Amino acid sequence: MSIDLNPLSLRELTTLIRDAKERQKALNSRQPVDKVRRQLAALAQKSGYTIEELFGEEAASPAKAKPRRRKGPKVAPKYRDPESPWNTWTGRGKMPLWLASKIRFGHSPVDFLIPGVAKLTPNDKPLTGKRQLFKQS
User: Which among 34, 23, 94 is positioned nearest to 63, based on CA atoms?
Assistant: First the structure.
């Protein structure tokens, strides 16, 4: 978060600093959420209630985080730019700009394969059987 402080006057800056210090003090004095949640659950149980009865099902469990995307294994680079060796590409995902610009100027992706590491994946799969068209007479 960025606040543009240039247009603020001295009075506005001192007010902003004072308010920020008060907010910082309030945040530092609070107990952690987990500790407060445990205390509330203990107090509710002592009184003969459950958290679900008092606040509903949503309040009983902490906020669920989004499931993380599963990461695949690291893949070795398949293509390398001969002019700048740190430019590499695994062949997965969107084609990088350096390779796209070279292809646009007439090069082939085969020109940038790393020797001994990568083989070009064929675009056309061989047909297992050919169809023949018979005309009815």
Answer: 34
